[in-house]
Specification:
Elements: H1 6-22, E1 26-31, E2 38-44, E3 49-50, E4 53-55, H2 64-75, E5 81-86, H3 90-98, E6 102-108, E7 115-121
Parallel strand pairs: 3-5
Antiparallel strand pairs: 1-2, 2-4, 5-7, 6-7
Bound molecules: coenzyme A.
Coenzyme A (COA) binds at residues 1, 53-55, 60-61, 65-66, 83, 85, 89-92, 94-95, 98.
Amino acid sequence: MPGTGFEARRVWFVDRLAQLNDGGATILCAFDVLDGRMAGLITLETDGHIDQLAVAVHVWGSGAATALLNEVKRMHAGGPLTLDVNQDNARAVRFYEREGFRRVDARRNATSGLPIWRYQWADISAVG
Ligand SMILES: CC(C)(COP(=O)(O)OP(=O)(O)OC[C@H]1O[C@@H](n2cnc3c(N)ncnc32)[C@H](O)[C@@H]1OP(=O)(O)O)[C@@H](O)C(=O)NCCC(=O)NCCS
């Protein structure tokens, strides 16, 4: 989030990505076809948990986040996919609900203590 102070969290974030990678997670990156710059990333753990999804502010609303999510849905065919989102992150909440995720639980982030929602997605067309 732009208001989070990303530079202050860079070390934590790099460590988190390394931890996910060591645990066997897939880390997918999106690149801007116009200038080759990285546009965003998503992580997918073997149990279907999405720990990180972020796209650069200049591509918000472009469909890049949907494309990353669709690729993860394809990779983890049928689901379920799970993720946690800060309850005050209205844009992300709206995004996940539009992309078919359903709210299943309320809890607190173990590190920040902030209230979060747990969301889940499963491909209902794959049932039956
Ligand atoms: C969350 C994120 C991946 C979504 O990608 P995006 O490209 O911004 O998403 P989209 O523009 O496709 O969709 C955003 C939706 O939220 C809506 N929205 C925007 N601001 C909003 C607000 N303040 N409150 C509610 N809804 C809002 C948009 O109108 C759109 O919904 P719509 O399609 O029904 O009109 C991206 O914003 C991001 O990287 N954010 C920073 C990192 C982050 O928060 N990651 C999620 C952590 S779990």
